[in-house]
Design a protein that fits this description.
A four-stranded mixed beta sheet has the order 2-1-3-4. By secondary structure, it is an alpha/beta fold. The two termini are 33 Å apart. It is built from twelve helices and four strands; from the N terminus they run ββαβααααβααααααα. A hairpin with a 5-residue loop joins β1 and β2. Among the domains are: 74 residues, no CATH class; 103 residues, no CATH class.
């Protein structure tokens, strides 16, 4: 299968020794699609600890569970809705005929809605315990188990840039963000797919696209060296954002 069709997961080793994992199994309604559309491969710069990979696998299992829930909710929405509507009608007619009260209609509507909601919830729980859900859950967990990580020169460059930014003051890091791109950060030909997906995963995980619109304000604060105010700007992870900006420029070819 062509390299361009692969989806990547990234382990980023931070300067303080912590691990940052980026993966395409987010948001939950995209999990099943991401696991079924093609092969998934992991990339790292500095080799991750075994316990970090174990914790990451458990996180992916949790994403699988959420993904199956959303998949079932979409697949079974119309049948559940029709059954719940039927439960509302039956309850409404039954209580209208049996229960005599001084406020007709109101009580029947409330009881009918309660019956519809209860039916919808119970059907959802039954679906989650069904053989179909169990098979889908097992199939997706097997896909997760087959994911393997290998060393990547691209991720090594990401970690080098990130550690450099993490060792600087906030004003200097913001200047990295707003000043022109330095030379020598372009990914190689074989790294282009990894770089593009890395940038996309950062955008999805941290909403960096929205932050880009606030860069004029960051530029002014950096020019005045107002580090305290910069730190207060939405508590941004500036070193990581600086790395995102650097590699996004190389991917898009523009500032």
């Amino acid at each position: 299968m062509a390299e361009a069709e692969k989806s990547y997961l990234f382990h980023i080793h931070r300067k303080d020794g912590s691990s940052l994992f980026l993966h395409p199994l987010y948001p939950p309604d995209k999990v099943v699609e991401a696991l079924e559309k093609g092969p998934l491969e992991g990339r790292y710069g500095r080799e991750p600890r075994v316990e970090a990979l174990t914790g990451f696998r458990d996180e992916l299992y949790r994403q699988v569970e959420l993904g199956v829930r959303h998949w079932l909710a979409d697949l079974r929405f119309i049948p559940k809705f029709l059954i719940a509507a039927g439960a509302f009608v039956v309850a409404y007619v039954f209580f209208s005929a049996v229960v005599r009260d001084p406020l007709p209609v109101i009580d029947e509507v409330v009881l009918g809605i309660a019956a519809a909601v209860a039916s919808f919830v119970l059907l959802g729980r039954r679906d989650l315990a069904s053989r179909r859900a169990a098979k889908k859950r097992l199939d997706l967990r097997l896909v997760v188990d087959r994911i393997s990580f290998r060393e990547s020169e691209f991720v090594k460059r990401v970690e080098e840039a990130l550690h450099s930014a993490e060792g600087e003051g906030v004003v200097e890091v913001v200047r990295r963000i707003v000043e022109p791109l330095e030379q020598g950060s372009e990914p190689g030909d074989g790294d282009q797919a990894e770089a593009a997906q890395f940038v996309g995963l950062l955008e999805r995980r941290f909403n960096f696209r929205k932050l880009e619109r606030e860069e004029p304000g960051l530029r002014r604060l950096a020019a005045r060296r107002e580090a305290a105010r910069l730190l207060a700007v939405r508590k941004v992870d500036f070193p990581l954002y600086a790395v995102y900006k650097r590699f996004k420029r190389t991917v898009t070819g523009r500032r």
